[in-house]
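Try it yourself: sequence plus 6-hydroxyuridine-5'-phosphate, in.
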Amino acid sequence: MSSPHLRTYAYRAQNHPNAAARLLLETVVRKKSNLSVSVDVTSADDFLAIIDAVGPYVCLIKTHIDIIEDFTPGLIQKLQALSQKHDFLIFEDRKFADIGNTVALQYSSGVYKIASWAHITNAHTVPGPSIITGLASVGLPLGRGLLLLAEMSSNGSLATGSYTEEAARMARANPNFVMGFIAQRRMETVGLTTCETAGEDDFLVLAPGVGLESKGDAMGQQYRTPREVILKSGCDIIIVGRGVYGSPKNLDIQEVRNQAGRYRTAGWEAYEERVLS
Ligand code: BMP
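Structure, out:
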């Protein structure tokens, strides 16, 4: 059997053990899009306007819900209405990082009640496997999926080497709830000992740090092109923020739409080249 990154999204959708991963892969296939837009703006109006503009081009909208200054629970209903209108999933980039009991409360409760609306969320592996147990106790009955942060796109990240390998092992031990990784490359052989071979697990790799023009920002972010990320590194989904919406101070919605279309095409062409060539 070929490695997961050489199989089609459609094939992977039929065989994935995690419900949220199946929904995501089905959406990717229906919309011919492996683009996730990260909507990191602080005004609810800008947030909704960007999502409405990029909605037709994306499989997944990534949120940082706690940066919205005028958040109300009604915003979640509007986000869900846009998710229905444009057929995309929602990923709250919460980066949980505490003991199991605490993350279960943070995921289910508080102001944001993330588990009730986010199909996908993510966690650091610093606390060890109990973070997965805690989040799964809330998310698995709801059909949610978890991504582990195995690597980061920022310059000087400590998520390298044995840390990344341990994250891969934690995922392999929990394939029903852990649907994949935030990482910069394909992960199926990472952390295997010399006597082990990659199993049938299919972990999706969602990669942030993607830009067509810029190579980085002034705060350590590093960008690669969709082609480098999907074709050369074997990641599955590109996550693009400012490359699509530019500066929130000068939002130009028509330009946001154009950029989303451009990234969608670049990501999809790189996938076709990877799988069909
Ligand atoms: P931008 O494309 O504007 O640089 O945004 C990237 C987004 O991805 C941000 O929301 C950031 O929090 C997230 N992210 C990242 O950039 N690198 C990582 O390793 C993990 C992330 O979640």
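One thing you can check immediately is this: The chain has a mean pLDDT of 96.
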